[in-house]
Amino acid sequence: MGSGTPLLALRGIRKRFGRLEVLHGIDLELLAGEVLVLAGGNGAGKSTLVKILAGVYDDWEGTIELAGRSVRPRRPHEAAALGIACIHQELALVGPMNAADNLFLGRERSRRFFGVDDRAQAEAARLWLERLGLEVDVRLPVEQLPVAVQQSIEIARALSMDARVLVMDEPTSALTVMETRRLFERIEQLKREGRAVLFISHRMEEIYRIADRIAVLRDGQLVGTRHASELGRGELVEWMAGRALTEHVRAAAPGEAPRLSVEDLTVADPARPDRPLVRDVSFEVRRGEVLGLAGLAGSGASEVLGAVFGRLPRARGRVRVDGRAVPSGRPAAALRRGVAFLTNDRKAEGLTLSRSVVENVTLASLPRFSPGGWLRPRREERTVRRLAEELDLQAPSLGAPISTLSGGNQQKALLARLWLTEPTVLLLDEPTRGVDVAAKVRIHRLIDEWSRAGRAVALTSSELPELLALSDRVLVLHRGEVHAELERHEASAERVIAAALGGAA
Amino acid sequence: MKGSMSAPLRALLALALVFAAGLVFHADGAFYRWDTHGAMLRQASVHGILACGMTLVIVTAGIDLSVGSVLALAAVFFSLLTIQMGWGAPAAIAAVLGAGVVLGALSGGLISTFGLQPFIVTLALMVFARGLAKQVSGGQKISQAVLKPDGSGYDYVDLPRVFDLIDSRLLGGTVWVVTLVFVAIAAVSWVILARLRVGRHAYAVGANPEAARLSGVPVRRTLVLVYAWSGLCAAVAGICQAAQEQQGDPETGTGYELSAIAMVVIGGTSLMGGRGGVVLTLVGVFTIGYLQKILSLNAVGEAGRLMLTGAIIVGAVLFQRSRRNG
After folding, report:
1. Distance, CA of A196 to CA of A31 (rounded, Å)
2. How far is A439 from chain B (nearest CA, A)?
């Protein structure tokens, strides 16, 4: 391992989104020939940091030094030119193009007069892939190749650009055990060549297999950096979980009767038939109970909620509400059975942005406001006004497009939409994502009120303290399977994170 | 949003500009005569009927390229039934409207069931319906001149009264019946979009289909109904066209889908879906109608008319856009 100047040094990196600071001065060093694993829960700031390195943002404070020289990538191609290559979770290849074309995309080898020298590119591509121990037909469209091979092509592209720093953001999330092993062999090779790898993973086993050193982020701050051999698993979990937890907001005792019961829920992944997104998940939620579904990114918690609501076509399993079966694959039918669902992507799947606040709130319960098919705008307006007061929803006017509202008020409008459907079961996927603190408090109270009224609530949250504060019981998912079930008194942040990483709860 | 002017206001302003141009270039006072305005409305009515149906489709973020061909098919079919087969007007009208609804519903069904792009599906129907019109008519115009069975010449039959009835004037001779048909279609289209549940569904589907689906909106049924309405409008327009031309011409209505789209867009209804409405479309119909009328009054040749119309469409749409970005 090299001594003296680190290959890459981050000093005092700060980044804010609007008024919200998400990185509070991160210092991090990456040495030549080492793998530094960056760990942390959802929302810790890992992805933001990676994007800064990748040149996605240009409005951050602090300095980046590459081999002692101060650099500042402002665009992705600038980062690439500096020798920083990022391999993201979602691959950045052009599917219909072949491996050689992808490898040299944007810096094609041209013939003397015009056109691309396909033969030279194919030959060069073959050599690069061979170095990674890969024999593929470089003329095949990459979308026909396995994900692992596509990933290797990305690594080969990084190498062909002589990248000295490779940033890998959860590269194993889509790989099988064998493919992961081969990836790790390649990473060892990169280390021998004196390159540095910044590796992000959510899996305990992997972290300890590949890491030379481990750095942990929490809430936008660096908790610490230590050699992997000196950081015990318990300590790693403690670093990730932190200590400060919000008080439990729930006091009511849930009833006994199961309201929602889910049996053997499986959701296939269209991209990988051999590895479902959710596998054989079964659970019950009783009257007045709040069940938290915990898990790190890609755990399948979000897909569980979507599948119960019937929005995912590739879901199998049995869903019952108060003993009555809910037909699968049809959100409209689920709504009629009293199931309401809040998406985690407000803009893309929740709001009709160009329409008014009133129309957005009444969308899921229009028959109530249009007897015989004729709309009753005044009745709609009255009802929405009452709900808006109840939820402290601030809008310049209820007739204004909902796009003019703040995130917190938009979220309240979506919750009001759910409320109007008079649900008995509520599935809330990240109910407080991207809302301000005041709205968060109101939404927490609403969830509590709903459960006190005997409704069954199942929710996810990437903020663990919030999840623990809201839930009567926590189901921890890991790679699409239930890894642990913890009652409220057992559910500490440490245990949930340990289980979410795939360890014992 | 800095631009304080609302979409209807901007559209109205564009119309006022065109109207003012008419007051200036009045062609020796022709623009000041009631007759001119009645004639403008007569000429714009068929296009306006198509534009009303098109508005509903565009609100769902779709497009209906088939309306010009469906119009021709309806004109041919209507002429065939009334002139050559001797059907009564009510039965013939019902049959033609039914055909329009079926064709429109077919588009909507294909689009919503298989997730096909509206552009492709209605392009296919545009070609198909044109072919069907030629098939039904044997490639001939269906008119009073009926080919003798032995092919030796033509017999002339009486034109059914319904033709003259549709192409006649009312209210002191300034308003044509086709204009009243247009007004009726516009009124019903407005009710559908602004007052019925299905209209609200159409806006929701256009603004965000996934949000609509997750809210239990019957997306497929909504799209089928919307395209069926567009098909019905095209059939109505076809009957009016046949009455005005006194024949069923399988070549008629070529390019009408584009003028209908232009009218909707000039009004300010967004091709992205989820916003706009029939009132805006009416403003677009008047804007293009007056523009055409003023240009022809001033004896601007067809070449100049087309180029100017194109330029004004771009200008009007830029005008509408500046509201959203400003």
Report:
1. 6
2. 22
Q: Which of residues 24-43 of B touch A (CB under 8 A)?
A: none
- CA A271-A274-A277 angle, to 5 degrees, is 65
A396 touches chain B (CB under 8 A): no
Residues in B touching A417 (Cβ below 8 Å): 215
Neighbouring residues of B279: CB distance < 8 A, sequence distance ≥ 6: B8, B190, B267
Question: Residues 252-291, chain B: which have Cβ within 8 Å of A?
Answer: 270, 274-275
Sheet holding A165-169, edge to edge: A84-87, A165-169, A196-200, A35-39, A213-218, A221-227
Question: Higher confidence at residue A204 or residue B188?
Answer: B188
Question: Is the separation of the CB atoms in A210 and A199 below 8 Å?
Answer: yes
Q: Are the C-beta atoms of residues B193 and B53 closer than 8 Å to each other?
A: no
Distance from CA of A114 to the nearest CA of B (A): 36
DSSP labels, B60-92: TT---TTHHHHHHHHHHHHHIIIIIS---HHHH
Which residues on B lie below 8 Å from A367 (Cβ)?
Answer: 197
Tokens coding A390? 């109840």
User: What CA–CA distance (Å, rounded) separates A105 from A2?
Assistant: 33
Cβ separation of B211 and A364 shorter than 8 Å? Answer: no
10 Å CB burial of residue B130 (0-12, 13-18, 19+) is buried
Q: Comparing C-alpha atoms, which of B207, B201, B183 is closest to residue B51? A: B183
User: Given a cut of 90, is residue A450 above it in pLDDT?
Assistant: yes
- Pick from B197, B204, B211: which is nearest to A375 by CB? B197
pLDDT of residue A93 exceeding 90, the answer is: no
Q: Which two tokens stand for residue A3?
A: 């001594």
Q: Count the Cβ atoms, other than its own, within 10 Å of residue B138.
A: 11
Among B210, B213, B275, beta carbon nearest to A354: B275
Tokens representing B60 are 């769902």
Interhelix angle for B89-114 vs B67-79, to 10°? 150
Residue A440: pLDDT above 60?
yes
Q: What span, in angstroms and rounded, lies between the C-alpha atoms of B166 and B158?
A: 16
Question: DSSP H helical segments within A313-463, as ranges?
Answer: 331-336, 357-362, 366-369, 377-390, 407-420, 437-452
Q: Which of A332, A335, A366 sits opposite B200 (nearest CB)?
A: A366
By residue count, chain B amounts to: 326
The SS3 call for residue B36 is helix
Distance from CA of A238 to the nearest CA of B (A): 39
Nearest-CB residue to B197 (from A311, A355, A366) = A366
Nearest to A460 by CA among A475, A482, A439, A480: A475
Closest residue in chain A to residue B195, using alpha carbons only: A375
Cα atoms in the Cβ-side hemisphere of radius 13 Å centred on B225: 17
Cβ separation B216–A332 shorter than 8 A = yes
Contact residues, A window 410-469, toward B, CB-based 8 Å cutoff: 417, 421
Count of CB contacts below 8 A, A vs B? 80
Amino acid code (one letter) for A347: K
Structure tokens at A447: 């969830």
Paired tokens of A420:
């109007």
Q: What is the pLDDT of residues A234-264, one digit of tens each?
A: 888 888 877 544 455 565 566 678 999 999 9
pLDDT per position as a tens digit, A188-215: 988 998 999 999 987 788 899 999 999 9
In this complex, do A417 and B215 lie within 8 Å of one another by their Cβ atoms? yes
